[in-house]
Amino acid sequence: MPNNRNTFSPLAVWRRRILSRAVHHGWRRVREWGAVTAEHPGGLRFGRIGDGTRLAFPQGTVFGEKWIGLGAHCVIGEQVTLTAGLMPDLDLGPEPILTLGDGVVLGRGSHVVADTLVTIGSDTYCGPYVYITSTNHSYDDPHEPIGRQWPRMEPVAIGPGCWIGTGSVILPGATLGRNVVVAAGAVVRGHVPDHAVVAGAPARVVRSWDPEKGWQPPLRTPAPVPIPADVTPEQLLAPAEPGETSVPPAG
User: Fold this and answer.
1) Where are the alpha helices (DSSP H) in the chain?
2) What is the pLDDT of residues 185-198, one digit of tens each?
3) pTM, entire model
4) Rounded mean pLDDT of 28-53?
5) Buried b (16+ CB within 10 A) or exposed e, 21-57
């Protein structure tokens, strides 16, 4: 039977605490130093990377940076893959293949694979593990292994202001309009109009905006109340007194 006499001794506990603090402190430093920005690109040389854009460390697979343009104030989470071209070291011509507008957010573990044009509009937010690709396997020849058949490529265009939920897949040829909501786990192909909510695999429109009738079918929950402009962060975070709300009413 193992001797655990010293497992919880004061000295062992102290050593473990010091080591744990050192590991966490070191990892925070590594994440800080390993992040990619316009000022500190590391080994990545993007065609464009705007001010305020940050790729968290560790990054996922990244190649074809010369043909990748990142707008300003984008947030790229950990382990996000960004690729331009079927493989590294290809000459893809004078124009960018993969373009992110200003303020795009790509959640942790997402993949954006651009073998032909992929455009993500400004202020589009993607949850974690979203997969966006302009390429799909073909299976025309039933006698040839699918992985050996030449893939199909179609451009992907995602409009500005979209919200793409966790685990969604955007397939080649998909075009999403402005302010589209993609439900978690949806598989999107084809055209999605402006101001629509899509869900399912394959995704279909489950709610849309009518200028006269509003959302159809109507939303099940009331719209959130905006925070008044004169409310300070201290007021917002202060605990509410019994019978009161934490945010003063507007007006």
Assistant:
1) 10-34, 233-237
2) 999 999 999 999 99
3) 0.83
4) 90
5) eeeeeeeeeeeeeebbeeeeeeeeebbbbbeebbbbb
